[in-house]
Amino acid sequence: MSRRPGFLVYGLLLAFVLGSAAPLYWSFLLGSHTAQVAAQGVPPLLPGGHFLDNAQRVLDTVPFWKALGNSLLVSSVTAASVVFFCTLAGYAFAKLRFRGSVPLLVFVVATMAVPTQLGVVPMFILMSEFGWTGSIWAVMVPWLVTAFGVFFMRQYLVDAVPDELIEAARIDGCSQIRVFWHVAAPAARPAAAVLWLFTFMQVWTDFFWPLIALPHENPTIQVALNQLQSGFFKDYSLVLAGTTLATIPLLVLFVVAGRQLVSGIMQGAVKG
Amino acid sequence: MRHKVRSTQRGRLALGAVTALSLAVLTACGGDDGGEGDTDGPVTVTVATFNEFGYEELIEEWNADHDDIKIEQVKVGTWDDAKANLYTKLAAGSGLSDIEAIEGDAMPAILAEADAFTDLTDAELDGRWLDWVAEKATNSDGQMIGYATDIGPEGICYRADLFDKAGLPTDRAEVAGLMGTWDDYFALGEDFVRKVPDTAWYDSSGGVVQAMLNQVENPFETDDNTVAVDNPELKAVYDTVTTNIEKGLSTRLAQWGDDWVASFQNSGFATMACPGWMLGVVEGNSEGVEGWDFADVFPGGGGNWGGSFLTVPAQGDNIEEATEVAAWLTAPEQQAKAFAAKGTFPSQVEALDSPEITGASNAFFNDAPIGEILANRAEAVTVQPHKGPKYSDILTAFQAAVLRVDDGSQPADESWDQFLTDVEALG
Amino acid sequence: MKIDGGDTDTPRVSPPSASSTPTPADVPVRPTLRQRLAAWDVRLSPYLYISPFFILFALVGLFPLAYTAYVSVHDWSLLGGQGDFVGLQNYREVLENPYFVKQLVNTISIFLLSSLPQVVIAVTLAALLDSQLRGRTWWRMSVLLPFVVSPVAVAIIFGSVFGDRYGLVNELLGAIGIDAIPWHTDRFASHVAIATMVNWRWTGYNALIFLAAMQAVPRDLYESAELDGAGRVRQFLSVTLPMIRPVMVFVIITSTIGGLQIFAEPRLFDETTARNGGPDRQFGTITMLVYDFGWQLRDLGRASATAWMLFILICVFALLNYYVIRRIGLLGGDDR
Q1: Is position B277 within any domain?
Q2: Which pLDDT does position C29 carry in this prediction?
Q3: C-alpha to C-alpha distances, A163 to A157, A169, B216, B314, nearest whole angstrom
Q4: Considering the domain A62-271 in this protein, what is its CATH number?
Q5: What pTM value is reported for the model?
Q6: pLDDT tens for each residue of C311-324
Q7: The domain containing residue B193 runs over which residues?
Q8: Which residues of chain B are within 8 Å of residue A135 when distances are taken between CB atoms?
Q9: Which of B82, B117, B278, C250 is spaced 20 to 30 Å from B190 by Cα?
């Protein structure tokens, strides 16, 4: 694709981006007005002046910073863990031949098909056995590896790591682990970046399990935001101010780490 | 073949991951073995609540006065979430707080599983609560499983300004005289919608269903918990409510939905059945709207909607202390203070006479003496419907049946038949 | 295509052989320690690499699965605990439930309305992002914006947008003279609304996945295609799509699995307190039925049976999709 993209491309992209950004703007919008305005069906177009007031109320009502910190910690650690273990396993499924690899992979993918809602009860029993309920581990352990991650890395690595490269490395005398570390891992970088992001966001937006597994004083951000809806009366301006506040660190993270992330995605494999 | 730059990058990444993991381990290990098995320190009793129980100041008061037992509140946003949490941990056998607040409508199901909860029967607390409230927390073996916190005696909230538009009286006492029975209430409504077009009489069919069902003795189940929904009283309620839909009395909206919330701002209706806790909702949703008032009347005499109970799960470690705390929190003086804080109306007999109640008034509702009104309405409650273990589930199906007529997707008779099938399928 | 590690430490110059046992005539009788270690390295390392995954997976993936299967053949109340063994009775009761078929159809409908447009738009979006845009990084990051918005906010906003009476879309339709659409009441309209919520959130992410795959496509393939006279669209169809087939398979299979499991969005879209997908369950999905049986009716037995039936359904659909993709020829080879 050497030609420069024309207006059509930019136009389509702009339309998509506006559509993506609209709800974000909307939540900021409603978070900056009073509850009365926020409850109406059609919102005004411009922000009101109440955002800081509402934000202050959010901070007073829930342990916001702690929840944010918990979420950041949990999400980053699990994302890193998933990338590490699933790249390793995905590489093995993609490039190494061993007995039972196909049925095992099919089995792993199949497990994604069982809804997770029911897993809550046995998972809680398990966490109690280990004594982890009430600590951050309870929220991290279920996410340390995912079937999704293994499947994804396997699919990506199947083509992204040319077999000739591996052969060449083997001829050079590399052991398996060095082949992995020097050939497969760099090639996996784009997919690893995407997987990291996906896992981060999945864990970040998880609500039901942290609600049950974590103690009240030590919530993750989604649980904390939900506490803003307590009482029979739902103050949407408060809730949306809270969600906007929770989004700001993510946006900052994306701006700061985004280049790394996207350049990781941009970096292709060794050209053939 | 050797990518030096990349390997240092990867090395750093790996180091980062390892650091993160170790941090996580340290945090986790540091955090959780904290206050366990500490025989010298105070016992912490956790109280799990939802919505707003008004306990914040009470807990501070207790903690200031007591060294041996400290209370900690665990709040969840809605009963829905609290219920999910409760049921999951009951199934798992661990993880519940020392005291769990339970919503009234779920009590029948809880009573059926009384093994999971401590028997709180205490002769000293006899007569603390209104009779019909104490009954709701007592199982068939006569054990009291929960201590009642608040109740929801209902009056009628109305928009005096809309009444004025329709040429109806606006004074509280006068309005009360016009709505003594359901027939009067609905007839007045028909009059209203004729005079003020595009405005419904009441906020939702669902609210009226709740109100009417709470006055029927055996709406869904017979006294021995056999399901018997095809009974004349229930059909009468159904027919009345669905006929009213055609007459334009209902907004045809689902209670608690987004459109329902918006209808407060858009003057979608003129009256609604208001238990004490609903006053806060109306006020919140109607910010900027003037003209709300609260009348000391309820069609059919009296009704109760809502109310919660404190229970002590049997799986906890601090049963004795939790029982003590629960008894204290639900004492008349404490509940009266909770009312002053968050509007949760007391279920305790003595509290009904306390100054917090008798003196309470609400500026938003035209300075209505809400304490007095609610106390009157509480005493006017005569019938307490029998609620067996399937009550909530059947109620859900019933409300769904009415909503199907509301939203026009089914005619009333078909919807009723579907309701009967649904109830059978509950199993 | 897999590579089998050969025995690379023997002093011979011949290329690695398919088997790891050298022929007796060429090497000393006892393999050296190095040779043995190398052989073990080759044979054991795959298992070693997948074992951390599988150990953790046994805990968090398998145990709940087995537990659910066990529960589904018993009479099991959420609060009361385990009852008698009842064989397939739970499954029978679920199949006879008046809403089961309806919710099944809903699930498939919402799935199709969400996955099909998602894949098409995502792959197109990725192709657009794959070009030499100005401010490339910002464009690419911006497709992730929906990801950042909290589910709570999404529910509130989309609920408000698609409100039957006071919602934004109906207001706009009214302004141009079209009748209001009953988004919550009408079955198909509700599916469209929910699919919109799902698509809004996930399209950008899938686009990035495709983009990552597209980045691995060698540029000279495009150059030679252009020399052959292929336009941009033709290049896309003949070069890009075939080259990203494993990832395409991945996206289609995971969207199938995810799309048939949709739970949070319809639940939040429901204005009634029961949250079963509307008063007539017009947009209730099978996963919601699982939740209804388990946490509302407190019958874990039927909930587990429903979950396993959903599992079978998803497997059927996933396999179907896979074979359809192969037939259509989006794939060339025998890769999965």
Answers
A1: yes
A2: 67
A3: 10, 10, 76, 61
A4: 1.10.3720.10
A5: 0.83
A6: 888 888 888 888 88
A7: 154-301+370-425
A8: 28, 31-32
A9: B278
